[in-house]
Design a protein that fits this description.
The complex is a heterodimer of chains A (136) and B (820).
Chain A lengths: L2 H23 L1 E4 L1 H6 L4 E7 L16 E7 L4 E6 L12 E8 L5 E8 L3 H4 L9 H5 L1
Parallel strand pairs in A: 1-2, 4-6
Antiparallel strand pairs in A: 2-3, 2-5, 3-4, 5-6
Chain B lengths: L10 H29 L7 H29 L6 H6 L6 H8 L3 H22 L4 H18 L3 E3 L2 E3 L7 H4 L28 H16 L1 H12 L7 H29 L10 H26 L3 H23 L17 H22 L15 H23 L1 H8 L3 E2 L4 H25 L7 H26 L6 H25 L6 H23 L1 E2 L11 H4 L8 E4 L4 E3 L2 E11 L2 E11 L5 E7 L2 E5 L3 E5 L1 E4 L3 E9 L2 H7 L18 E5 L4 E4 L2 E9 L13 E12 L2 E5 L2 E5 L5 E4 L1 E3 L4 E9 L4 E8 L7 E10 L1 H25 L4
Antiparallel strand pairs in B: 1-2, 4-24, 5-24, 6-7, 7-8, 8-9, 8-10, 10-11, 12-13, 13-24, 14-23, 15-16, 16-17, 17-18, 17-19, 19-20, 21-22, 22-23
Helix pairs in contact in B: 1-2, 1-6, 2-4, 2-5, 2-6, 4-8, 5-6, 5-8, 6-9, 8-10, 9-10, 9-12, 10-11, 10-22, 11-12, 11-14, 12-13, 14-16, 16-18, 16-19, 17-18, 18-19, 19-22
Classes of the chains: A alpha/beta (136), B alpha+beta (820).
């Protein structure tokens, strides 16, 4: 067999391995119900329930942040995140959590992804601040 | 309804829009003319050529015109234009006005078009016989970029997004625009994202886009070579341009990571974010292409690989811009742009150039000078070829994983990205890096065509052995051995590459000057690997928090393991080897700097080192609190400090206007404790003590004229809190006529205290002081995170060295070049 043929096969094998590994390591989007059934980490998309309490008190614990999230099918669950409250958390509406369920029924997020660029498209004109100037 | 709007400046926008149309038209005209110039058999007919050139010059002029109009609009704060309103504000200093220029998609497309215009002119000047076909491709690319800016509606479909759209057009329907004088209400723009207010953001985008733009040149040469059947000739002039493109793009990518490291809060220089990957993907394939082009030039092997990689690199540039600009990344990237309605436009852009590449490869495949003979196993060309293929594979892995949202869209699946993408990328890319770094060493010992195997094995053996020894020491000292085995292998590969290329560099000084470029570039690359590996692999969060409530072992297993500490103002905290104290604030609007003092003591308790870091936060109306870190740079490591959170009242207390007396201010304090004291007495309290030094019978209060009816007495207090002394003087005032009493309270914010001088008791020579003590939760504090990055300077210095290597190579290749 020619050397280049062998090398070609090796290359193709690695390429296939990459694709399989990508698929194998990929996570899945789910709901809190799925999280209860699964032990692995998964992605949950949802909206923060701003009516319910959001706990972050640095003076008690700088690495504890909890809030309630409503997932896409409407289930709500308490989410605990062992870090500070993300800076733009209050501004974001839809968020993506990566994490898993704990035994006591809280969802433990290891990552919180907020879709920030909404701040670029959030076309609201802030006129109140400047209304005074126009009257002069 | 026609409203006559007042105060708008419509001319610059109309002029700019005219230039956009002109830029698009002239580029298209130029591409068509160059096409006919190329296919025209009458060699003496220069008409088409000149039309192509004129079209291109006109395009260049219009691109400059667009830029001038847009800059004028932003610089003059013409907020009637959406782009200016969206990306700039009045407070921005000039150099950040430049960065707001390319914050939006339109501005960055302009930047791309500008560089491509410059490169096209250089090629008109220098490409000689290649001008016609090469410029056909570049003018076509230029036309497509201009089309992204058109913002014109054709058949109900808006094509492109213009930077000259008026605010009232962009936001049709907002009630404010029913008033003709709406502009008087829009006094200021949104401003620039605080994270982009960094000097790297002034120079990183131009560099990156020069890199992207210069990728079109190798592509154009490859297309020209296949099209004109000048199969062998295109490679030589192409090498220099390809080297230039990888040099600039590589620099741009590293600048981006330097910016991320200096001003972002994720605590690192590389996060495998899709936006970062998008710039790295074409770099990897083109660097592979450069190597196989050199192989082809020297041996005649690897023709197809060289052509393919050159062509695919530019297609990947376009694919990457589709990824980041179409909004398809959606929830997977924090940094990608949102969709401007150009999804299909971007897809078509990729498709056009992919089609050109595929058609030419297929049609010309049979005629390609592909060598029938196999490479020798012990030849440089074979292993360089293997290296290039591995670079392409590492690129493939990045493409496959980054494109997960694309696969979802195409196959209607719903796969989420890996929950721990960083580890996945790191392990995979490290695996490829092992092979690539080893090959950058091995191939230097080989010769083209045939190598003396015995000698090769002896030298390689010696170098691998020495590299293994050095690696063992480094791995042990830096703690890399705690990581996955693949990272140790990368270290071995990188050290081996450094040794071998160091040897080659030594030969350069003995006179083999031709090898300088490759040796230096590879040394730079080796250093980048070493630096990135140690810094990323052994970076240590030194602000590990051991306090805090215990939420059970379940929580500590997470990825986010208590990396933040809270510091009360003036209260020292022991953090690793350092004692850190939040000592104060300084405000340079809009930035609020937190002064964090670091002190290091030796075992005997003597102060060894002392410095202050000033990480800052900015309160932004749209984004909330936005923080930037501050880093102490040492030669061998960096200490990175970042504010994760600060209570808003601290931020506001720092603001100049925040000191108005608040009627409910007492609510911010615990119930006061009353002390009856005389001069010299001491009041102990939680964090220290207070001494009444003396009474000041001539106390002054601002704005209150003193006359004989008013008596004002000040209590001169010395406050000692955590070893720091403050002076303060609460004042007691009484009106002799009517007996009215006023207390002028004084605060010592840093100590969290407030004093009220409430009563004078002449009978026993005492006064009454009310001491208000702030509860813990109201006291100023910060939450911060500190990370140590060891040996990160290898990464930055390696980049500089690599760029020097590329430059040397470009000079060498240009010298060899005799373009006709």
């Amino acid at each position: 067999m020619k050397k280049s043929a062998i090398f070609g096969i090796v290359t193709i094998a690695i390429a296939i391995a990459i694709i399989i590994c990508t698929y194998g390591s990929s996570s899945s989007y789910g709901t809190f119900k799925d999280a209860q059934a699964n032990s692995g980490e998964l992605h949950i998309i949802g909206h923060v329930d701003k009516q319910k309490e959001m706990v972050y008190d640095a003076t008690k614990d700088a690495n504890y942040f909890s809030f309630y999230l409503r997932d896409t099918v409407g289930n709500e669950c308490k989410v605990v995140y062992n870090s500070t409250k993300p800076e733009d958390f209050d501004k974001s509406d839809k968020i993506v959590l990566v994490g898993k369920m704990t035994k006591n029924g809280d969802f433990h997020a290891s990552t919180i992804l907020m879709k920030c660029p909404s701040k670029y498209t959030n076309d609201k004109i802030d006129v109140t601040a400047d209304a005074k100037k126009s009257s002069i | 309804m026609n409203t006559a709007y007042q105060g708008e400046h419509l001319l610059p926008g109309q002029l700019g829009q005219f230039f956009i149309i002109l830029a698009f038209g002239s580029a298209l005209f130029s591409a068509i003319s160059y096409y006919f110039a190329t296919t025209d058999h009458d060699k003496l007919n220069k008409k088409w050529l000149w039309m192509g050139r004129i079209g291109y010059f006109l395009n260049t002029a219009s691109v400059i015109g667009i830029g001038s109009c847009l800059f004028y609009i932003i610089y003059s704060h013409l907020f009637e234009y959406h782009y200016a309103w969206e990306h700039s504000s009045r407070q921005l200093p000039v150099y950040y006005i430049i960065s707001s220029f390319w914050e939006g998609q339109e501005g960055s497309f302009w930047l791309w078009g500008f560089w491509q215009a410059v490169l096209g002119n250089i090629l008109i000047w220098r490409a000689k016989s290649w001008e016609k076909p090469v410029l056909t491709v570049i003018a076509l690319s230029q036309a497509l970029i201009a089309s992204m800016l058109l913002g014109v509606e054709i058949l109900g479909q808006r094509i492109g997004s213009s930077p000259f759209i008026l605010l009232r057009v962009a936001m049709t329907g907002a009630p404010i625009f029913s008033q003709p004088n709406y502009l008087t209400f829009v006094q200021d723009g949104n401003g620039l994202n605080p994270l982009l207010q960094n000097y790297w953001m002034v120079i990183h985008p131009p560099t990156l886009f020069l890199g992207f733009a210069s990728m079109v040149v190798p592509f154009a040469y490859a297309v020209a070579g296949l099209w004109q059947k000048r199969y062998k000739e295109w490679i030589q002039p192409c090498i220099s341009y390809a080297l230039f493109a990888v040099m600039i793009l590589g620099t741009g990518v590293i600048m981006g990571s330097l910016w991320a490291y200096e001003s972002l809060n994720f605590g690192g220089f590389w996060a495998w974010d899709p936006v970062e990957n998008a710039a790295l993907i074409p770099w990897l394939t083109l660097i592979g292409a450069v190597h196989v082009m050199i192989v082809y030039k020297n041996t005649g092997h690897s023709y197809f690989t060289a052509t393919f990689l050159t062509l695919i690199s530019f297609v990947l540039v376009l694919y990457a811009s589709f990824l980041t600009r179409s909004g398809i990344l959606g929830d997977t990237s924090v940094h990608a742009f949102t969709d401007l309605g150009m999804f299909w436009h971007l897809v078509i852009d990729v498709a056009i150039f992919a089609a050109i590449a595929i058609v030419l490869l297929v049609v010309r495949f049979k005629e390609m000078p592909i060598s029938k003979k196999e490479e020798e196993t012990y030849s440089r060309e074979f292993w360089m070829f293997v290296g290039a293929v591995f670079l392409a594979l590492s690129c493939l892995q990045l493409v496959v994983v980054t494109s997960i949202p694309v696969w979802n869209a195409m196959f209607k699946t719903h796969i989420a990205p890996p929950s721990n993408p960083v580890t996945l990328y790191n392990v995979f890319q490290a695996g490829f890096a092992v092979v690539v770094t080893l090959l950058t060493g091995v191939t230097q010992f080989m010769k083209y065509k045939k190598t003396d195997t015995t000698r090769f094995f002896i030298t390689t053996g010696v170098y691998v052995f020495s590299a293994a020894l050095i690696t063992a020491v480094i791995v042990y000292v830096t703690g890399v051995y705690k990581l996955h085995i693949v990272f140790m292998l990368v270290m071995l590969g990188a050290i081996y590459s450094l040794l071998v290329n160091g040897k080659v560099l030594a030969d350069v000084f003995k006179g083999k000057i031709k090898l300088a470029g490759s040796a230096v570039a590879h040394i730079g690359f080796g250093l980048i690997m070493v630096g990135a590996l140690i810094a990323a692999g052994t970076s240590k969060v030194i602000s590990q928090n051991t306090s805090g409530l215990d939420y059970g072992a379940d929580f500590d297993k997470g990825n986010n393991s208590r990396e933040n500490i809270m510091l009360y103002k003036h209260e020292p905290y022991k953090m690793g080897d350092y004692t850190v104290t939040y000592v104060g604030d300084s405000v340079a609007a809009p930035n609020h700097y937190f002064k964090v003092e670091y002190k290091k003591y030796d075992t005997k308790g003597n102060l060894k080192e002392e410095f202050i870091l000033k990480p800052n936060s900015q309160y932004n109306n749209k984004m909330g609190l936005v923080s930037s870190p501050d880093t102490k740079h040492y030669i061998f490591h960096d200490l990175y400090t970042h504010i994760s959170m600060a209570p808003l009242n601290v931020m506001q207390a720092g603001m100049p206007a925040g000191h108005e007396e608040d009627a409910n201010d007492d609510a911010n304090y615990n119930a006061p404790v009353t002390h009856d004291i005389s001069v010299g007495d001491t009041i102990p309290y939680r964090d220290g003590y207070v001494v009444l030094e003396r009474l000041n019978k001539e106390a002054h209060i601002q704005n209150i004229p003193l006359d004989s009816t008013i008596v004002a007495v000040g209590a001169m207090l010395k406050v000692v809190s955590h070893g720091i002394t403050y002076e303060t003087e609460p004042i007691f005032m009484i009106n002799r006529k009517n007996g009215n009493v006023f207390n002028f309270d004084r605060k010592v914010d840093d100590a969290g205290l407030k004093f009220r001088f409430s009563k004078i008791m002449p009978e026993n020579n005492k006064i009454e002081i009310l001491l208000y003590d702030q509860p813990e939760s109201k006291r100023p504090y910060i939450v911060m995170r500190a990370i140590e990055f060891p040996y990160i300077n290898f990464l930055w210095s390696g980049t500089v060295i690599m760029v020097i290597g590329f430059l040397l190579s470009i000079f060498r290749r240009n010298k060899e070049l005799k373009t006709i």
